[in-house]
């Protein structure tokens, strides 16, 4: 996984990337593993809240700091809207995980 590096435009217009820090890479691997475990154990057909609870539990078992249903205020035109955005899962105050439960995947 690579993160775009802030840079000025060059004639070649090639984006430059820097590697993801190893700490973030390790968190990402634990997140993918937790998602796999929950998917494998529970299967399809449940409510998103059930997957969210189990996913958060797996992340906690892996030693990660997890927050569920985190409210993020939206600031617009000098106003603050407290009900602006709610994150499903915030891991290590760094990575946002949005939980989705679907019946089928449609080809695009």
Descriptive notes:
A hairpin with a 3-residue loop joins strand 4 and strand 5. Helix 1 crosses helix 2. The longest helix has 21 residues. The chain has a 3-stranded antiparallel beta sheet. Strands 1-2 form a two-stranded antiparallel ribbon. It has one domain. The two termini are 24 Å apart. With 108 residues, the chain is of the alpha+beta class.
Mean pLDDT: 88
Number of strands: 5
How large a portion of the residues is in β-strands, by DSSP E?
25-35%
Please state the CA-atom Rg, rounded to the nearest Å.
18 Å
If strands are numbered along the chain, what order do they take across the biggest sheet? Answer: 3-4-5
Topology of helices and strands:
Elements: E1 2-4, E2 17-19, H1 22-42, H2 48-61, E3 66-76, E4 79-91, E5 95-97
Antiparallel strand pairs: 1-2, 3-4, 4-5
Helix pairs in contact: 1-2
